[in-house]
């Protein structure tokens, strides 16, 4: 979840994989590659297409990617789980 936007955990994990796979190797690559957007990926889960239309899409994708990096078990990361942590 990011603000009022909610996404399935599996989709967020896929987003993180896409973003990690396109991480530049060096600062020079950033200059050559320009601004990377997961919206350019053909395998981006459909749930994120509405995010791509927003001006704050890059920040939303970054926060979701960071959330997927947490070492919480999937049950505790699920909003439906009560009593975890």
TrEMBL record:
The organism of origin for this protein: Pitta sordida
Concerning SUPFAM superfamilies, the annotation shows: Proguanylin
Location in the cell: Secreted
Q: Which gene encodes it?
A: Guca2a
Family, per entry:
Belongs to the guanylin family.
> What's an example of a GO molecular-function annotation for this chain?
guanylate cyclase activator activity
Q: Which GO terms describe its cellular component?
A: extracellular region
Which Pfam family, giving just one, matches this sequence? Guanylin
Got any disulfides in this one, which pairs? 39-52, 73-81, 76-84
In which broad location class does this protein mainly occur, judging by the first location in its UniProt entry? secreted
Keyword set for this entry?
A: Disulfide bond, Secreted, Signal
Q: What is this protein called?
A: Guanylate cyclase activator 2B
Q: Does the keyword Secreted apply?
A: yes
């Amino acid at each position: 979840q990011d603000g009022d936007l909610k996404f399935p955990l599996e989709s967020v994990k896929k987003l993180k994989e896409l973003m990690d796979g396109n991480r530049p190797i060096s600062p020079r690559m950033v200059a050559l590659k320009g601004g990377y957007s997961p919206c350019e990926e053909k395998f981006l889960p459909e749930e994120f297409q509405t995010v791509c239309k927003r001006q704050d899409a890059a920040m939303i994708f970054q926060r979701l990617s960071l959330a997927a990096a947490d070492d919480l078990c999937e049950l505790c990361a699920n909003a439906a789980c009560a009593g975890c942590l």
